[in-house]
Specification:
The structure holds 2 protein chains of 2 kinds. Chain A is of the alpha+beta class. In chain A, α7 (512-522) packs across α10 (611-621). The chains are: A alpha+beta, B mainly beta.
């Protein structure tokens, strides 16, 4: 395969520095440094301005493309994740993932004119063709808000898949396509499966769900200008196999789902090569003439270029019954990948000019935007978004976290499983101890700083061990971080902010139902008056500020395939987000922990509870 | 059929001409031979041009003249589907089954059970939708799922005046939500205040009213239908029917109304004055004054339509078709047409104009 690696730097690269001061100065005594961390881009209707969404500084940086300077910084809500324009270009919509709102921006005045309430953790938004309704993908509530733009109120919520995140409007405005960063909850040890949820904008209802077998971690989706071809960027985790096969390419495949009338079916194709991985595929853009597609690969610091004509021709040349295997064929990409363009660190969102002459790439970890000449497949300039000049340990660690360069063949990085520093909704067969042995559920990373030891078996006394030798030996299969790098990585993980709890009132006051649940959580006697043994009382193991006593406990959840029935007591911070549960992810819901996996009252005394009492307990747990 | 009623039937054409004009139907019946999942049909729900049938062995969808069947192998929670409702806003189908609650959304099944969710009990007799709330009637009390917050709320003897937790049907409105509690009368929930009120035998000594319109006719309720626009509640019981206007009760028995039987499986309001009744002896319609009964005759099994006017005079209207069976379990409306769930097939009543 012909590879094109356009180097950053050299005479062709013009680095433009923001004319406005950085959002926060990195000076002693100041608030913690905030890096812009651009994640998404959108081009204004007339193509003269580029909106760079900076999740690190909670703002939109408006770039004048004539001067390549930031001309305005528009403050929005917390941790914005998505930006798009109305079809007439008069409004921009920014999803504020931690505020559960959309900021509506008047593109004339560059002011936020409304804040629209959404579902939980809105991640992207698109307005319909008439500008009457706004569709918002909500990552935590697994649904799509339909907001009536006349009233600013949410008209209804549509059931999406798990982790609803990215949306695309079909060119004719009749459909909205939604992808999901987490797989739908399935049977224990079943292959993951995601979906593309298809919404009819006429009925404002879900009309179709394109299944994506073996896919999880599906990011952006884009439609070609003729509406006949769609492309979604995704990972295919091989979580059912031991990670011993990392050197064989069997950990995570990086691929695209190709769908639409051009093919008449959904076909998944790999973008990896036999000895090199491009991961995780995140942003997608399709050339106006449908000649090429561009995919950012965040951990690989590059943009992959695909020839669409070759891609479709290749797929059609494969017998239909063999197309399901294409995503696992690492040699296939040679047939349609025509270039890899090196960009900045951790490239995320893409924006392509209307004439296809310029491709813009948001480099999250550099606080820059790469400007690419697609014809020459090279970076022609880089636009700075400002930000602190000095790098903190946390920022250096964050760069490591997002990078895949440390793993064998650049296979994956921390962020491949801890998606955007969270989790992936999967249970993994991590260790080379045989198939199906010691299955472990992926846990949320937030709030782990003071919860040592780590690993479900408590085998790692600190994060340095967890992220150092353990990562090298079991995950990356090569020498990994230097001592300094490891310190940085651990600093980043420890400093990771905790997202707001959506079930606990801002005042901290509990509802009557949550109060009843709290009483059950804290009870020392069963309903028949018998004392609950101390080691079987909820707050004994789940104690302290993180709801863990940091000990090992046998709660009867061990399986014959587990080497030990003793497991690390997990922290319960935002526990409602992280299904499935228990050490191996065998409980698909909080309820199942006790209705299915606690027959002998070994995981707290719960079998005397009526169903509504268990419900109360669970509503309380959601507030932690 | 009651003897007294039979004596009043006037068969002459003259009598027919003098009778009230009640809706007439040409009945088209579906059984497994036509593709219906099972002949024992518990529930029917019209969804625009489509019709859903909850049967003892699967959920059927009738569309474009063909039946599509959903069973547990397709993802349904349980094969016995007791009730079906459709969210008009989203098109989602909610099926109450003997093994949990199924949400069918654009081909994807999500099952809520007492083990994997906050569903109060796996035996779900009824389901009703109001805005973002899904109300369920189960064998262990009522429940409400808020589809936005994913939170469940339970309604039972600890949280409501319910002394019997076998809830059989639910009829949610914007202002009020009503439960039919089998053996426990009717439970009313005020959406604004969150307060509950129960309606039972007014004297508290027996399950049935002593004086005719003293209160709810009987505590063994099977169905409620809340006509919110007119603020009228209709109730079906195994011992007659009731209508409640918020102050006064009006009760209906076979001996003093056009009801063909006091054994009612369902009531469905058209509005505050008009309602349909599913009985074990035919389908009945009340237009506020007059009654009509549609069924195969109890003795000859020939198609039969009876009309009872406000004075109690009963006439027989010639008809060539009838619902599939006398034992009626549910009904729904499709414009002027009516669909009827029976113990031996699903019937489509095409209105004759």
């Amino acid at each position: 395969m012909k590879r094109v690696f356009a180097a950053i730097g050299g005479l062709a690269v013009l680095v433009c520095v923001s004319a406005l001061p950085p959002a926060r100065a990195d000076r002693p005594g100041a608030a913690p440094a905030r890096y812009p961390s651009p994640v998404e881009l959108a081009l204004s209707h007339d193509g003269t301005q580029l909106y760079a969404l900076c999740e690190g500084t909670d703002e939109v940086a408006v770039i004048d493309l004539k001067t390549s300077l930031v001309v305005r910084r528009i403050g929005v809500g917390r941790v914005p994740k998505g930006v798009s324009f109305s079809r007439d270009g008069k409004r921009a919509y920014v999803t504020n993932s931690w505020s559960d709102t959309v900021s509506e921006i008047d593109t004339g005045s560059l002011e936020v004119v409304r804040s629209l309430p959404t579902g939980l953790e809105p991640t992207s938004a698109v307005a319909d063709g008439d500008g009457a309704f706004l569709y918002v993908a909500n990552r935590i509530s697994d649904d799509v808000s339909v907001i009536d733009l006349a009233t600013g109120l949410e008209a209804k919520r549509l059931l999406a898949g798990r982790g609803a995140s990215y949306l695309a409007l079909s060119p004719d405005g009749s459909r909205v396509y939604c992808t999901h960063i987490y797989p739908n909850l399935g049977r224990f040890r079943a292959p993951p499966e995601s979906e593309i949820t298809v919404i009819d904008t006429g009925r404002r209802a879900v009309v179709e769900r394109e299944k994506l077998p073996n896919a999880a971690g599906v990011f952006h989706v884009a439609l070609a200008g003729d509406g006949r071809l769609g492309i979604a960027a995704q990972m295919r985790p091989k979580n059912l196999l031991p990670l011993a096969h990392v050197e064989h390419g069997w950990v995570i495949g990086n691929s695209l789902s190709i769908f639409g009338e051009d093919l008449g079916e959904v076909v998944q194709v790999s973008i990896d090569e036999l000895d090199r991985y491009f991961t995780p595929p995140f942003g997608v853009a399709i050339a106006p003439d449908k000649s090429a597609a561009y995919v950012s690969t965040t951990g690989s610091d590059s943009v992959t270029v695909l020839d669409i004509r070759k891609l479709l021709g290749f797929i059609r040349s494969v017998p239909p019954e063999e197309r399901r295997a294409l995503a696992n064929d690492l040699s296939a990409s040679a047939n349609y990948v025509t270039g890899r363009i090196s960009v900045g660190r951790a490239p995320k969102g893409l924006a392509l000019s209307a004439d296809g002459g310029r491709l813009y790439v948001a480099n999250r970890e550099d606080d820059t935007v790469s400007v690419i000449d697609p014809a020459g497949q090279r970076v022609v300039s880089t636009i700075s978004l400002g930000g602190p000049a000095a790098l903190t340990a946390e920022r250096r660690g964050e760069r490591l976290f997002y990078s895949a360069k440390y793993a064998f063949h650049g296979h994956f990085g921390c962020a491949n499983c801890h998606l955007e520093a969270t989790f992936d909704g999967l249970s993994w067969d991590l260790e080379p101890d045989g198939f199906g042995v010691d299955i472990v559920d992926n846990r949320l990373l937030e709030d782990v700083a003071d919860t040592a030891p780590f690993k479900w078996n408590g085998g790692n006394p600190d994060l340095e061990t967890e992220c150092g030798p353990r990562t090298e030996k079991y995950f990356y299969r090569r020498q990994s971080y230097t001592r300094e790098e490891l310190e940085d990585l651990v600093a980043f993980i420890k400093a990771m902010p905790v997202r707001p709890n959506r079930y606990r009132a801002a005042s901290g006051e509990l509802t009557p139902q949550q109060e009843r649940g709290k009483a059950i959580y804290e009870r020392t006697r069963a309903k028949n008056g018998a004392p609950v043994p101390q080691n079987n009382q909820c707050p004994v193991c789940h104690s302290g500020p993180h709801y863990t006593n940091r000990q090992l406990a046998d709660v009867g959840s061990g399986k014959p395939t587990d080497r030990s029935p003793l497991f690390d007591v997990p922290q319960l911070t935002n526990v409602s987000l992280t299904a499935p549960y228990l050490h191996d992810g065998s409980a698909r819901s909080l309820e199942e922990i006790w209705t299915v996996f606690n027959p002998q009252d070994t995981h707290g005394v719960t079998n005397d509870l009526a169903k509504d009492e268990l419900n109360d307990l669970i509503e309380y747990l959601k507030t932690l | 059929m009651k003897k007294g009623l039979a004596l009043l039937i006037v068969l002459s054409a003259a009598a027919l001409a003098a009778g009230p004009e009640m809706p007439r139907y040409r009945w088209q019946n579906f059984t497994t031979a036509d593709g219906l999942p099972d002949d024992h049909v518990f529930s029917v729900k019209v969804d625009g041009k489509r019709v859903w049938a909850g049967t003892e062995n699967g959920l059927g969808l009738y569309e474009d003249g063909k039946w599509k069947i959903y069973r547990p192998e397709e993802g349904l929670a349980h094969r016995a589907v007791l009730f079906v409702d459709v969210d008009k806003r989203t098109g989602e189908v909610w099926a109450a089954t003997m093994g949990g609650l199924t949400r069918l959304s654009a081909g994807r099944f999500e099952n809520y059970t007492q083990l994997n969710s906050g569903l109060p009990n796996d035996v779900v007799y009824g389901v009703g939708l109001q805005g973002d709330n899904v109300w369920v009637a189960t064998a262990a009390g009522g429940g409400r799922l808020n589809t936005r917050t994913k939170q469940w709320t339970h309604f039972n003897e600890r949280s409501t005046p319910m002394y019997e937790i076998w809830t059989y049907a639910v009829s949610p409105g914007e202002e009020k939500v009503y439960y039919a509690v089998w053996g426990g009368g009717v439970l009313e929930y005020d959406v604004k205040t969150g307060q509950w009120k129960d309606y039972n035998d007014p004297d508290g000594e027996t399950e049935i009213v002593v004086l005719k319109d003293q209160g709810l006719i009987h505590e063994i309720t099977t169905s409620v239908s809340w006509a919110e626009k007119d603020r009228i509640l209709w109730v079906a019981t195994y011992f007659g029917a009731s209508r409640y206007d918020g102050r006064y009760w009006k009760n209906f028995l076979d001996q003093d109304s056009g009801l063909p039987s006091n054994f009612l499986n369902q009531v469905k309001a058209v509005d505050g004055n008009r309602a349909w009744f599913a009985t074990d002896k035919g389908l009945a319609y009340f237009d506020g004054m007059n009654w009509a009964v549609y069924r195969p005759a109890l003795d000859t099994h020939q198609p039969e339509m009876l009309v009872r006017d406000a004075q109690g005079a009963v006439s027989r209207v010639p008809t060539e078709t009838a619902p599939a069976h006398n034992y009626i379990l549910g009904m729904d409306f499709q414009g002027d047409d009516v669909w009827v769930a029976t113990a031996h097939g699903l019937s489509h009543g095409v209105r004759i104009k």
